[in-house]
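S.,

Sequence below, as promised.
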Amino acid sequence: MSRVKKLTQIFIKKGPLGTVKAFGEYGRKIKRNREFCNIARQIHLISPDERAKQIQTKFAHPVKFSIITPLYNTPKEYLIELLESMNRQTYSNWELCLADGSDEEHKYVKEICEEWIQKDSRIIYEQLEENRGISENTNRCIQLATGEYYGLLDHDDVLHESALYEMMKTIEETSADFLYSDEVKFSNKIEDAKDFNFKSSFGKDELRSHNYICHFTVFSKALLKNEKELYRPSYDGSQDHDMVLRLTEKAKRIIHVPKVLYYWRVHPQSVSMNLDSKSYAVDAAIRAIGEQLKRSGENGVVKSNLPYRTIYRIKYDVQGNPKIIILIHGCYDSKNKVANTIKNNTEYLNYKIVFTDEKIKNFGKKINQAIQNNSADYYILLDGKCVPKNRTWIKELLMYAQRKDVCAVSPKIIYENDTICFAGMALDKHGMKIKRVAWKKDNKEQGYEAMLRYVRNITAVWRGCCMFSYNSWKTLHGFAENMSGYEEIDFSLKGSQKKMWNVWTCFSELIYTQNEEIENEGMDIEAFVEKWDRHIAEGDKYYHPYLEKLGLL
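The prediction came back faster than expected:
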């Protein structure tokens, strides 16, 4: 449509004033996009000075990386760009292991590789007698490898020039045996890439919800020891998800490197462009997650969380019929009304409601006393202004709280105007040192990378509603009685120190019946900062700093 024709339509539809406003908004949109692109370039492009600095860096214990890349009918320009990206690595102790399953019509793949081998002996190439599929071809690459760490690079993608340097730097600093980075999708010029995937630190439940780790993944060769199979052909399409699930069960130190180190090419045959081109990948992922449940001794059913085919929902079997006590605090309305609302909106039957003693002003003491006086297997902290939205809310929380490795679990809580009240708590270097994720976002929105549509791990739960087991409460010595306003945050962080997970589930939903801001009065920020200052300074591991900077969340 020509600009003149489009302008005429806008004028007819909106009139003179509306047209002026429309053009003003269009101009602001162009400006925001330009600003975003400028910031985006700064995120993933390095300067010549930084490049020179990285090249000159000497590591105390440099490891050799084997880059694992199976080839199959790789387009010429894609293959050359991949090889060039390896050649530009600022860390030089690497080898590129290529197992080529290309057919006769794509002989140029071998010719290009042999040409590059003449220039760089770090390239290891083998032509396969037949194409045996992505998993078997990848396994052959591993058999060619001699490095201490393996890095996975798809044949149509590109590695950031600092990728191996950043991984080596992190390994030397942390002794990590499993690492992954952020990534960005591109289709034309890499310099203009802006479809970023900024990830959170490792989360067991998030990995079960979707393979957010994806690219760039690096892991120690030692993690493959005693594995009966490497990449498993029966999981082709989601072979990486299957491998990541298995390796993270064994890894001693899993580290997320919060930098864009991988360029994922979007084209018609890629999963990122068209899932239908590899629909079998979904079935394979469901089986891979199910297999992990079996290995962990957990029972549950895994399905796609439609309409999101590559986001998965697990319905865990609830063990037995445990007793649950709902500790209702802050209830100043009719207690009978609150109790009846819960009764009429709750499917789970084995629960008891206890109203906390509001004469006790110390929240930690009030909750601890209520637990000491009322025996149960599990407890739910529930604000008197929160009411259930779905009848399965308790069961959905219990699915996670019953796990021994879970500290606490909170549901999705929305305001009456259908905006987000609670979708996770994050540490913040500013203000009150905590913030609620996606606060007051429209509940109809899916959130960044659909984060409001799946179960994920969070730094802290919220007293508005959270469930925990008696054993967790006992192990963590109850709630702090000297940290006003931060008691459940402190409880969650203590759980993390014990290597326990805090979980947020969107499948348990409640409504917070007041739309005003939650008060910060009486919060003892000094006590909280004194205890958790180092964690606050390090930044929240489940809330990427760029999400706020780029206005993505």
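The two ends are 33 Å apart (CA to CA).

Coffee later?
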